[in-house]
Design a protein that fits this description.
Blueprint lengths: L4 E5 L2 E6 L2 H23 L2 E5 L6 H12 L8 E5 L1 E4 L9 H8 L11 E2 L10 H14 L5 E4 L17 H5 L4 E4 L2 H11 L8 E4 L2 H5 L4 E5 L5 H9 L18 E6 L8
Parallel strand pairs: 2-11, 3-4, 3-7, 4-6, 7-10, 10-11
Antiparallel strand pairs: 1-2, 5-9, 8-9
Helix pairs in contact: 1-2
């Protein structure tokens, strides 16, 4: 088996694993250490969590570690990156259902500490609601760790490609977003048809993500190779939202497999 190797790219740490499964083990272990260190230091840990197919093995290992008595979530608060809009929390395709099924139902985390956007908030109140979500995170002292994936179009959360300036992009708060065509196409399999995918979503903004004390990004497979290279080696631009992570590069760790790293050199 090939060894894990590290690459430093303009101050960003990229750890390249022989397989996605090994990278996910490393991610779960990283999250476990963060929980333990944060709870020892200030009595609680605050995690930003992602959904989709990429983090599923991470959550599976966290559940196994919890069952083995190696980590408790009793003093953990979580804030999920995003949620489709509109969608009911009980919908099988909602991220609330996803998180309960794959993580929360198997942990000792108090239910009132698992925060996800509510896709049923009336649209007239969505902007205020998203701003409140940011205030909740700030009131907890910010995120100790933000777990991210990267979309084929470079999105992080549902911060989609746009033509705003870098200065504006770095300050983007949580908000309602129209989904990019690539995002809609990639979600089609989950919903059964692209026409059934909600056209919008609530997302934690770029600014709260970048404020996290540590950021862990997962990228696997050959389809992520080109966008990963753009995010790490290209200029910062709102057209590739993941490239904005360069502004916090000292706090960002990329965990990738060999296929995703193919264009990094």
């Amino acid at each position: 088996m090939m060894p894990v190797r590290s690459i430093e790219i303009a101050g960003s740490t990229v750890r390249v694993f022989p397989s996605a499964s090994l990278a996910c083990v490393a991610a779960a272990d990283f999250i476990t250490r963060t929980i333990q260190e944060a709870t020892e230091a200030r009595g609680r840990a605050v995690l930003g969590l992602a959904t989709g197919h990429t983090p599923l093995p991470v959550y599976k290992r966290l559940v196994a570690l919890h069952r083995a008595g190696e980590v408790s979530f009793r003093d953990v608060s979580t804030y999920n990156l995003d949620e489709y809009y509109p969608i009911a929390p009980t919908d099988l395709q909602s991220y609330r259902t996803y998180m309960d099924r794959h993580l929360f139902d198997h942990l000792d985390i108090p239910p009132n500490r698992t925060h996800l956007f509510d896709g049923t908030v009336p649209e007239a109140f969505v902007a205020d609601y998203a701003a409140t979500f940011d205030r909740w995170i700030a009131a907890e002292g910010g995120l100790d760790l933000q777990l991210l994936g990267i979309g084929r179009n470079g999105h992080i959360g549902f911060n989609e490609p746009s033509d705003v300036s870098v200065h504006e992009a770095l300050r983007l708060p949580s908000r309602l977003m129209a989904l990019h065509p690539i995002t809609l196409a990639d979600a089609a399999a989950d919903f059964g048809d692209e026409g059934l995918v909600p056209r919008r979503a609530l997302t934690i903004g770029v600014a709260p993500i970048l404020a996290a004390r540590s950021i862990l990004v997962l990228a696997f497979g050959p389809k992520k190779a080109e966008i990963l290279a753009q995010a790490l080696r290209g200029p910062m631009t709102a057209e590739v939202p993941a490239s904005l992570l360069q502004s916090a590069r000292a706090r960002v760790t990329w965990l990738v497999d060999e296929a995703a790293a193919a264009r990094l050199g």
